[in-house]
Design a protein that fits this description.
By secondary structure, this protein is α/β, with parallel strands linked by helices. About 35% of the residues lie in helices and about 15% in strands. InterPro entries: DgcN-like, DgcN-like_C, DgcN-like_N, P-loop_NTPase.
């Protein structure tokens, strides 16, 4: 997938940090590809990139405008169309991870043709997919799973991938969502795959490989989330993971976008994910727990992780605060 960079990250008038995870992912994991961010009045969050207008970004060399949102439903707000048109007229490609297709909006297609730019709907698979079979395949695979959505599955997988690559291990990051695809430049957004083909899509994404090769597969959703559990289950079956890492967000009172529905406990999450993973890999095991502790201070974060380690007998880390070296050690010694 060819996505022209540098990027101008458009985050609109967002007020929720989790709603701009597409833009944040690019800024955090591919900062060399990001020249700035475009914010509208009322925006209360930031990627940390310099604020720029479209004309300023063009002068700075921006090649694409990234629609950096991950809103509920993945819809394109009509109020953003003037910004998109301005970027097209300035010669920028448009990169979208929304469910709404840019290519289905005639006025954007006409504008792109007029100014010689491309519309990239990276959330929508273009390859032909097949149904899953669950046959054993060589190579090793790790999948991140979670107590909820947006708890750090992608960040954990990317952090672990980079740590193992630094150690010259034979690993590949496999993106399964639009944010991961923007960072990696390839992958399959599993939540846009027809349900019958989810497991098969993951089998294609992480196929048979060398015996010493690890595919590190980005998890999606949660088996406990009423909206996304179907995606999570298909991903789990198709991955046939040898290793699982459970991800959790400390201090979250309700599941993402569902008020009054508490997150499951870690023990419950481990038990259900292992039960479902062993449908296609009877030897699947949980090797560690990754926690987003940004809601508490360092002392509380360390204490929580130590308590979890004592309870479950496996490493518990915040990948951003503490790093993932201890998780990488387990993979290296596998």
């Amino acid at each position: 997938m060819s996505l022209p960079s540098p990027y101008l990250l458009f985050i609109g008038d967002a007020t929720d940090p989790l709603s701009i995870k597409m833009a944040r992912s690019a800024a955090d994991w591919s900062p060399e590809k990001c020249v700035g961010e475009l914010r509208l009045p009322g925006c209360q969050v930031t990627t940390g990139c310099p604020a720029m207008s479209i004309s300023e970004a063009t002068q700075a060399g921006a090649k694409s405008l990234v629609l950096g949102f991950a809103n509920s439903g993945g819809h394109l707000d009509p109020n953003w169309l003037p910004i998109v048109h301005e970027a097209i007229a300035s010669g920028m490609d448009i990169i979208s991870g929304l469910h709404d297709r840019l290519s289905a909006i005639p006025e954007l297609v006409a504008a792109a043709e007029k100014f010689g730019v491309k519309l990239h709907d990276i959330r929508h698979p273009t390859q032909r997919l097949r149904t899953g079979k669950g046959y054993a395949r060589p190579g090793k695979r790790l999948l991140t799973v979670g107590t909820d959505c947006s708890v750090g599955k992608m960040y954990t997988t990317l952090a672990l991938s980079r740590e193992l690559q630094r150690r010259q291990a034979n690993v590949t990051f496999r993106a399964t969502g639009q944010s991961g695809i923007l960072v990696a430049g390839e992958g399959i957004a599993i939540d846009c795959v027809i349900a019958d083909f989810i497991a098969g899509a993951v089998e294609q994404l992480a196929p048979a490989n060398d015996a010493d090769h690890w595919d590190l597969i980005e998890g999606q959703g949660s088996l406990f989330h009423p909206a996304f559990a179907g995606v999570s289950l298909g991903l789990l079956h198709g991955a046939q993971p040898d290793a699982l890492i459970v991800c959790h967000a400390l201090g979250r009172n309700s599941m993402r976008a569902i008020h009054g529905r508490p997150l499951p406990g870690l023990a419950e999450t481990i038990e259900l994910n292992l039960q479902m993973a062993r449908v296609t890999n009877v030897n699947a095991k949980v090797i560690g727990i990754a926690v987003n502790t940004s809601a508490v201070d360092e002392e509380q974060a360390v204490t929580y992780c130590q308590d979890v380690e004592q309870q479950f007998g496996m490493p518990c880390v915040d990948p951003i605060r503490h790093g993932v070296a201890r998780l990488a050690d387990i993979i290296e010694k596998w």
